[in-house]
Every structure is written in C-alpha cells, then in structure tokens.
Inverse folding.
C-alpha cells in the first residue's frame, strides 16, 4: 500500500462522510483496493460504514458488485437447458424468521425449477442459508465444480458466499469481521458464480425496491421479483414475501420494464400467518428437523404457508405457474406428493464430496422428524 493510495482512499471516505456520491468507476476502484487488502482494516471498515450511513446509490452498488464479481468470484457455467434461478435475501431484516428461502428453493426445484443458490452463514440472524444446508447434510465447503454438478444433476446447488473456494480473495474475510448491514448485503449476494438469469430476491428495506431491480437489470438478469414483506404491525419487515401482512414487489419484466405492486395474503386465499409459528427456534438441529417436517407435509399452518408462498413466487417467475396464487397451490401439491423431501435427499447426495456422510446426517434428522 502506497502513501498516495492511502491518502486518496481516505479522501474518498471523507467524501462519503460529507454525503457525496462516488461514481461507479470510483467505487469499483476503491472496492478493488479493499479486496486486494491494500488498505488498513480501519480504512476498509470506515469506507463500508460511511457508504452505508450515506446511503448507497445504484452506481455505488453496481461498482461494488463489479469489483467482487470480476476479482473475487470463481466463474461457473452449469450446462442446463432451462434458465438458472436464484432465491435469496439480503438479510438484516427486522422480523427474524426460520430459513424460508432454503425450503422454498427445494419446493421449487422439486417442481422442476433449476436453482443456483448463493448464500452465506448467519451474520445477524441465528441460522443462515449455508448453516441450514450444512445442518441438513449438504457439503457447503465443497469445490464449485461439485455445486455445478449438483445444479445439473439434482436441479439445485448452493455456492457458499463465505468460502475461499468460491470467493478466493477477500469476501469471506470481510463478511466474517462485520456484524452490521453494508453494501455487501446487496452487491456480494449478487455475485453468484453461475450468474443466473432469473431471481427472487428479498430485501431488508422497502426503499431497496427502487434500486435493486435496476442493478439486477444492468448486470444481466432477464427476470426478477424483488420483494419486501411487512409484519402484522405494518412496521417491521422481512426479506421474504410475507403471510403476516402486505408484500411489496418490484417485478423486472423481459422487456426491461419494472412493475411495482403489492398484495395481502388474503388476496391469494392464504390465511394470515402467526408470527410465533415462523420465528427461528434458536437451535440449528431443531430448525433442520422442522424444515424437514414442512417439506414432508408433517407441519402445516403458518410455516408451510409462508414456504409455499415464496416457492410460488419462483414458480410464477419461471412461468411454471400462471400467477403467484397458482404457484402457491402448486407448491402445496408438490409437498403433498412427497417430491420436496425426495429433492432434499437428491441434493444432499449430489452436492457432497462424501455422499455417505451427508446422507447419514440427513437420515438422523429424518428419523427425528417422524
């Protein structure tokens, strides 16, 4: 690190503190320095905090994504004949829930969608996507080629956003050192090695519905649903479609237009959910057992409904269902048929350097879920 670079970087932090915006090119350059560890930890943290406090622009998020994807992301191209679909959230939401996106992805995959997930371990929540997949028996520390094979063979795979095998330079280092929301909640989560065509993406704040779909359009997504769900009090929110209250949606259309709308659970014939039924259990094994109960149809009510709603979004997005309501109904049918729990078994067996160990772990959970 040179003195000149240090001064220029410090000047950029000062600009952010003064509420000045950076260009896309400037943000990319400064993020490249962070990823290359060319600045002190103090400078890196100050940059992320100042950018967050100011409020990130579309150009700043896009510039951050460019640096992460180009310099710190292994590129993988699954050989599939259908669009790749991603389903994840930014985290940092006010309403903490069980890991809905993992269950919804499995239901969608069981219905015929090809899922290329990219997630992380928990930062502010108790159990992140990677934590849940690991608890179920999926090998989350495997080589990206194994994930690629799982996407091709099982129709679902998960890239660990905190693994040096996926992001070899710095992303895991940075994420492991911070416990507050930053531009990385959006930019890093978009740095999927498979660069999917379609995505359902939850955001932690309603205002992100204005910027995130625009950024996704710019970096190559063809279709997307960006969602923010509201709790029953109308105040707290979640990075999922909600059965507690209203869900706000920004839908990226094939022609590049973005349509904004909202819906209530009852608009789709879904009963209002109960918050106490969808909160996390604070124990990963218990969470995994409960997820299995949902996927196998042993648990109904609010947990199952919110999984089916979010799976329904994926089915609608990909055209496998004509509407979100139709997608919800299809998701219920998939669970009732036993296909969802079978898809989980396929995933554990396929995304594993040691399939026997993963299946043994899953069998223990299946026995506990009876």
């Amino acid at each position: 690190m040179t003195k000149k670079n240090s001064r220029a970087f410090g000047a950029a932090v000062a600009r952010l503190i003064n509420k000045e915006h950076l260009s896309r090119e400037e943000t990319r350059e400064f993020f490249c320095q962070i990823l290359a560890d060319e600045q002190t930890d103090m400078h890196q943290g100050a940059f992320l905090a100042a950018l967050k406090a100011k409020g990130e622009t579309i150009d700043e998020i896009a510039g951050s994504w460019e640096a992460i994807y180009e310099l710190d992301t292994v590129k993988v191209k699954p050989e599939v004949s259908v669009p790749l679909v991603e389903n994840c959230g930014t985290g940092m939401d006010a309403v903490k829930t069980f890991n809905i996106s993992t269950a919804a992805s499995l239901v969608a995959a069981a219905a015929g969608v090809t899922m290329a997930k990219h997630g992380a371990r928990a930062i502010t929540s108790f159990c992140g996507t990677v934590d849940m997949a690991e608890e179920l028996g999926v090998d989350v520390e495997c080589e990206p080629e194994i994930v690629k094979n799982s996407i091709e063979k099982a129709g679902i795979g998960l890239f660990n956003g905190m693994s040096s095998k996926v992001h070899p330079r710095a992303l895991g280092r940075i994420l492991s050192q911070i416990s507050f929301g930053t531009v990385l909640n959006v930019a890093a989560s978009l740095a999927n090695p498979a660069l999917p065509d379609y995505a359902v993406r939850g955001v932690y704040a309603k205002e992100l519905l204005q910027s995130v779909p625009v950024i996704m359009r710019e970096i190559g997504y063809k279709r997307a649903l960006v969602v923010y769900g509201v709790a029953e009090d109308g105040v707290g929110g979640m990075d999922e479609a909600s059965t507690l209250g209203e869900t706000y949606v920004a839908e990226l259309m094939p022609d590049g237009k973005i349509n904004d709308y909202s819906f209530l659970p009852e608009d789709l014939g879904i009963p209002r959910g109960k918050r106490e039924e969808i909160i996390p259990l604070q124990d990963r094994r218990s969470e995994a057992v409960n997820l299995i109960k949902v996927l196998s149809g042993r648990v109904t009510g609010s947990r199952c409904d919110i999984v089916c709603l979010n799976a329904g979004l994926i089915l609608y997005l990909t055209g496998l269902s004509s509407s979100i309501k139709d997608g919800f109904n299809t998701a219920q049918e998939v669970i009732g048929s036993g296909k969802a729990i079978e898809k989980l078994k396929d995933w554990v067996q396929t995304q594993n350097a040691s399939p026997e160990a993963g299946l043994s772990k899953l069998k223990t959970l299946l026995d506990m879920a009876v």
